[in-house]
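Re: duplicated header lines in exported C-alpha cells

Our pipeline writes sequence and C-alpha cells for each protein into one text file. With two proteins the header for the second block appears twice in some exports. Here is an export where it did not happen, for reference. First protein block:
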Amino acid sequence: MDGVRTVRAFTLLAVIAIIAGGWMSQGVNTSSIEDDSLGPLISDESFTEQDHSADIAPESNNEGDSEIEISTGLIAGGMTAIGSLAIGSFFFEVMRVTVLIALVTPWLAQIKKNRDDMLTRGRILGYLEANAGIHFSALRDALGLANGVTAYHLHMLEAQGEIISWRDGKLRRYAVTKLSNEELGRIRNPIAGTRLAILEVLSTSGHLGLNGKQIQKKLAISRQLLSHHLSELRNQELVEATTNGRRPNWRLSENGIETLKISVQISRAEANT
C-alpha cells in the first residue's frame, strides 16, 4: 500500500533528523569544552595575540549558536513527526493499521515462521469467512490478538492473495478473496441504522408485506423519514411493492434478503467485540 511506504519514509526522515541533531549538538559541546581547556595555556605575555583573537571570538560564538539552533530544530522536528504518527494512530484506525504494518511488520517478518503462525492465519481466515466485512479492531478483539500480530498476519494474507481489504471511513474492513462480485458488493455496502430496521421489520411480514403506516407504527418514525428511506431502499432494489396504488405494501426483494442477512451478520459480529 502507498500509505505504508509513506509512513516508512516519514519515520526514517524523522529518525535521521533526531540522530543528526544529536550528533551536531554533541559536536558543539565537544568544541566548547576544547576551547575552555585552552584558556589557561595562554601566557600573560601574549597580549597582542589575545587582542587579535578577541576580535575573532564573537564570530566563532555566532557560529556555535547557529549550530545549536539547527540541532535543536532537527531534534524537535523529528520528535514532532513521530508524535504526530502516534496521535493519528490513537484516533484513526486506518492510520493505526498503516503504521502497524509499516513499522511492526518488518520486525515481525524477521521472526522465524513456525506452526503458531499458520494456526493464527488459519483462525483469521476462518473468522473472515464467517464474518466477511468485519473491521480491524473487531477482528482483533474477537480473536484476542495483539495489534501488531493482527496487522502482520492480515498483511501477509493480503500479500498472498488470500484476503482483500478496503477503507470504510475511519475503519479498514476485510474479507476473503473467494467471494463473488455480487457478494462483495453487498459486504462493501452494508445497511445500517433506520434502513436496517426497516428491512428487519419487512423480513417478518411475509409475501404480503406492510404498508407505510404499519412500518411507521412499528418503528415510531415520521412519515417523511420513512418515505425517504423507502425510496432509497427501492432505488437499491432491496424492497419491492406488492400492490399497486399510491400507498402500496412493501416486502423484501431477493437482493434485500441477502443484503439483510449480511448486514445483520456484520452488525452482530462487531457488537459482540
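Second protein block, exported in the same file:
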Amino acid sequence: MAFDPFPFSLPGAQSILLPGHVPGEAYRIDIALPGGEAPDQGWPSVLLLDAGGCFATTVEAMRRMSRRRDATGVGEAVIIGLSPAREDKDTARRQRDFTASGAGAEGIGAAGFLDFIEHGLFPAVEAFAPVDPRRRTLFGHSLAGYFALWVLAHRPAVFRAYAAVSPSIWWDREGLFEALGKAALGDRRLFLTVGQWEEALPPWQQGLPGSEEALARRRSRRMIANVRELGAVLKAVMGAGNVHQAVLPEEDHASIISAAIPRMLRLASQEEA
C-alpha cells in the first residue's frame, strides 16, 4: 500500500495573521469554533496566551469533554490562540508584552499589549464567530500567567474569568500583591495553580547536570509559596467561592499546562450566578 503524506489539520479551526501593536510585528490568531448554532448571546470564549504549545490540546480537550457536559462540567466555547507570527523563545519580547516594566514607549508593555487584545484581536475574532463579551476567559502560563494576574489587578472587566498557571509572581511580587489587594474585582473568577515540583526537584531530575542550579532557582522564586499567599489574599478580596487554588500533584513548571487545561475549561463553562 502506498502512503501519500499530507499536513495535519485541525477541523473547524482557522488562522489569521494580525498586525501587532509594535510596528513591523504581527501575531498569529488561531480560532476554533464549536459545532452547531451559537447561543443567542454568543459563545463563551477562551483566549490562550503563548498558544503555539497549547492550542490544539485545548481544542481537543474542549471538544471531547463538552460531549458529556453533565459528567465533565465543560461546555462548548470558541478557543482563541494568540502567539507571535513566528514561533520563538524571545525572552525580551515576552517581558515587553507581559509585564508593566516592559514598557519602553507609549503603548508598549502590558497595558499596550492588552490594548491590542481589546481593540485588535477581539474585533478580528468577532468577524469569524459570535462571542459573548461577558464570558471571556484568559489563560496564561509562567510569565503569561503573571500577565493574567496583572490584567485582573488593573483592568478586571476585560475578562470574566482568569486562569494563572504557574504564574511568575516573583517578577513583581510586591507590586502585584498591592494592586490585587486594592482592586475592585466584583464577581471575577480565578483559577490559580502551580505544580508540586516547582520548589523542588522531581525524582527524575535529581543528580542531573545543572540540577543544583535549577533547585536554587526554584527555591528563590517561591512558586508554591507565592501562589498560596496570593490565593489567601484573593479569597479575601474576591470571596472564597470565586477563587480555585490548587497545587497539582506530580507536575512541574513544564508539564502542568496539559493538566491545568481541563480545570480551566470547567471554569470557563461556569454559568453566570
